[in-house]
Protein 1
Amino acid sequence: MGAEEKAAHKNGGAQVNQGGRPRTDLGLLLEALFYRLRNAGPWRDLPEGFGPYSTIHGWHSRWAKEGLWFKILEVFTRRVRGPVRLVDGTHILVHQCAANPAGGAAAQAMGKTRGGRNTKLMALTDARGRLVNTTLIEGQAYEGRHVVNLIRTGCNLRIVGDKGFDDDKLRDTLRALGHQPCFPTKKNRKHQVRIPKKLYRTRYRVENFFCRLKGWGCTATRLDKLVQNFLSLIHFAAVIDWLRS
């Protein structure tokens, strides 16, 4: 007999209010996160049927701090087979409600480009275009400096990227780690680097991942001030993408 049943027995079978905060319905909480992911908008604009928006935002921040969705994503990435990894970056416009965070924009991976304030999402996917790892950097930052950090596990990988990664230092670093870079050289280079064209043709799948990701309203435009919360939202969307693959 549990504590609640014992308390009810002492009071003639009547239910006793134990006090404290009511339990959060996990299913309703996930629906609220899914709703915001799809429709974007401020937290306070969530429908009342989901409960207090502060509770939902609190759980989202807590899970972001604990890295919940990334831990789930890691479980899926263990299923990845084959040595091919696709890498690329894409710009995500920062909404005015997320601009000017405490501590400065640079600390929250926000930069300035010709298109205005934005964040750049770096993604490493498998050969099918499913997310393996990701990070957020400033919009004007050079993508090539972050490729090595995205490769957390694996050896003898074939890293495929576009001409934006045409950097001899990056190639040498990847080769020193035991990986094979597949980056085409720019036309203005004197010494062209030959790459397997059949392998390079698979690069479009990382672009397809970005298209699927930006199909969600809340990842197409950044509404979160904190990089930790926004990255958690991207991991949440990536988990859904894995479940649909």
Note: The mean pLDDT is 90.
Protein 2
Amino acid sequence: MAKQFIDENFLLANETAKHLFHTYAKTLPIIDYHNHLSAQEINEDIHFSSITEAWLGHDHYKWRAMRTNGVEEQFITGDASERDKFEKWCASMPYLLGNPLLHWTHLELQRYFDIDLVINEKNASAIWEECNKKLATPAYSARNLLRRMNVESLCTTDDPLSDLEHHKALAEEGFEVKVLPTFRADDLFYIENNNKFLNWVKRLGDKTQSDIQSIHSLFKAIEQRFDYFHSNGCRLSDIGIKVVPYAQSSVEQADTVFRKVLAGENINQNEIDIFKTQIFHFLGVKNKQFGWTMQLHIGVLQDPNQRRFEEIGPATGMSAMDDQPIAKNLARLLSDLDYERNLTKTIIYCLNPRDNAVVASLIGGFQDSDSVPGKIQFGSAWWFNDQKDGMLNQIKMLGNMGMLGRFIGMLTDSRSLLSMPRHEYFRRILCNLIGQWVEEGEVPDDQVMLKEMVEGICYYNAKRYFNL
């Protein structure tokens, strides 16, 4: 007899798993330490106009799926009505068996809206009407959506030039969910994209009232932004590294490269790597000085479809995993910082699961006792990997090569306020795996140890690690 779809024991295939989840994991608060949520939406406590805006407005996972189902772009990012877009999404759902979107979206429907219907074309009208009726009530404002999911704190992703006005307003008001900024420094690394890079440097100069004519004046301006972010609650930075750079070099060599770019001259690949290496080193040192956690997201092949990039722009669901080598250069970047005792708490996420063993083995060479246990973390399964098999692969690789009990757990990496049930999804997968190990005699049935392990990975490890 088939089990009910997404019942109370969803993904929990053994009795120990059910006990671990329902007793220890289920009710723990959420620390969502990396996402792309809008602090403005939270500060303004917005109400979504419809379930389409809430579900499809910024979700390139769903856009990608709809394109695969042959849906025309006008129903995805175009000017079709919200009702028509929603119906196209519902009609696509039955073809997503095996895709985490099937699980995530039904969990969201249940946890936020108390709707148990299966999402398909036949149920689209009933789901549309019930969700929109609830979204129009005060209980479904942005802040109440976070409260509903027991979110304790979250860290958004922010341009270093941001004024952080909405983070400041939330803090001053005393909103009980901590909404903290993250210093996302990608634009500093786009030196090969001359116009984009120079425009950002100019804006940095305007923001800091600096005349940026050398790498030293660039560094001073960035230091101002570190100070500003820190004073407004920032405790994490982030760098999206498409290809890991490294060139043994000096700040003076990087200054020469920077001045060439300012003068409009062309630079070669070695010069690009020199500049990026020194920028990475500078940011690493600053992170250590401020006591921040540095996140590294590695391996995106961004917008490979040139025609669609020109038609609908970047970050619309076209990106893929890259397959560039990462081990040697990443080790050199970390080693240079570590040699000077400037390696801060660091989380490394790899997009290509081919690199799971590389990262899991590499972090073991840079652990030490100068901050917290698990100082260097193998980040949670990311983007294309945050599905059942991807999470299991990441968890098992970390367990095999590192120390699973010190893992800081899940994050959403999402732009949607309705994405928090992904933490539940992760917790169920984790509890099922540990429960399987217990029932097969691979780990002791020691409830004190298991409680500490599950509660640590789901909540307490992150709370201690980030000192939130």
Note: The longest strand covers residues 236-241.
Protein 3
Amino acid sequence: MPSSEDHPQPNRRTALLGLGALSLTGLAACTRTLDMPSLQLDDITTGTIRPKISVDRQVTSPDLMYASATDDGFQLPAIPYAKVDPKFRRQIVVDPTGEAPGTIVVRLQERFLYFVQPGGDALRYGVGIGRDGFLWSGRANIQYGKKWPRWTPPPEMIARKPELEKWRGGQPGGLDNPLGARALYIFKDGQDTGYRVHGSPEWWTIGHAMSSGCVRMINQDVIDLYNRVNGKTPIVVA
């Protein structure tokens, strides 16, 4: 009878890598996004297996990503993520944009925002976009960002909605503020476009065209994106 020395047993890491490769082989034909917890193999990435998907500790199960959280004194409510189409939840995908790492790309028709990563990956978030007649597109830069920003409705919006007159001087940041927990300010050629990438308390609008032109995100997602953006960041909206 052969001894164990004739057939050495694989260690745990080797076994896990083998299972990961088998999982990717089976899934690659039907999807380009993967459930990240199944890939967290001792902090490694999938290496030479294509499509290559990175491991990121901030992209995990939705009950953790969209849990209630305290942020700068505000208690963010949990997001009922089961009511959000899974494709609009935060996830890592193979980058479809071809843009340089560090670029934000908003695909209006897809209702996705991509933050391009080194190595061929992108973080993808679901977004809400502007209604017809309120859309903006082009290449620009995120000039700066703000936490719990003050919202000042433009005069033309107040003209359409007189009830906003009380906020002509600005609405303080807070849970009911339309800009949500974070705002990233879009400038083109040094001029403020008036458009923002921002959070929203209205999570149910993600995936829809309902805003006045800005790109809105789930509050927990815009906080995640804000924490990743360093300095002036190129943005492409198309």
Note: The first helix runs from residue 12 to 27.
Protein 4
Amino acid sequence: MNEFSASRAEFPEATPFRLRGVTFRNRVWMSPMAQYAAGADGLPTEWHLAHYGPRAIGGVGLVLVEATAISPDNRCTAADLGLWNEEQALAHRKLTSFLTGHGAVPAVQLNAVGRKGSHQVPWVGDGQNSPVPVADGGWELIAPSAIPFGDLAMPRPATAADLDRIVEEFAHATRMAELAGYQAVEIHASHGYLLHQFLSPLSNHRTDEYGGSPRNRMRFPLRVARAVREAFPEDKPVFVRITATDWVEDSITLEDAAEFAKELAAAGIDLLDVTSGVLVRDRGARPPNREGVNVEFAAALKEASGLAVAPVGQITDLAAAGQIIRWGKADAVLMGRSLLRDPYLALRNQPKDAWPVRYHRAF
């Protein structure tokens, strides 16, 4: 028995939760996990409905759709979802309508990839370590500084005009998310993507107003946060996936993350999706393999900022989820691999009446 799996007489993970005008039926939420199932047009496919639909039927309170590109040159792969035009937004409506119709709040994670783009899907060649050159259908990469990620292409340093464009692309993608029917949006500022690259001194060597001190390094992510919050309806929440540490010496610290969290609160952000690591490949900086690895980080950031928090990473079962919430360390939990294995995990502690009526014959 691990520290999170104590027996319990109640199920706090099953209680409703509210942010702005949106109510989540419970606190077991589906983490965004890239499927690499879109076409080059960025449109969702039948796979996305078949993948996300059962988790809504299976009782999660929120389905957070995978990292979705704000522009064609901000994709990881040519199979990433996109929300940079109205055609894509309207195509997402079938998915959001289904999720809403089965009781889950539909949300989408918006992403700009920076130096971690233009690579193969994970099951082709060396996967995420296989660059796709421009000559073979790839695209130019930009980043805070000319520092590549592993074997991927060398990015060029982003200009002021690039940064202005990306802020507007985030705002436009947010408006497209609202058109698509999403009830919440999340800004991806972790796992080594563009906004995380600006936050970390390992990937940001700039000498202008966007580099150097922690306050300068958070300047561009905060511009994005303000633009997204302004573009999304006032009664709907905006999340940020935030990194608590890079797990590498001389990089982002929990204190840095806490200062960023306070600024996000001032910008009107509603919830922090708390994670860590995955900024660098060559230094082996991966989070340690332990249950609830980011839970204590989430609790610290909640206390520092006053924001709602939802940790992700190695939260494996409902016992863990319930204990985390009972102890007040988080307001919800984001579960990934466990929901890949069991789409109905959120219903496992619930009575027959909580299950879809078409499944009652199973009891």
Note: The two ends are 28 Å apart (CA to CA).
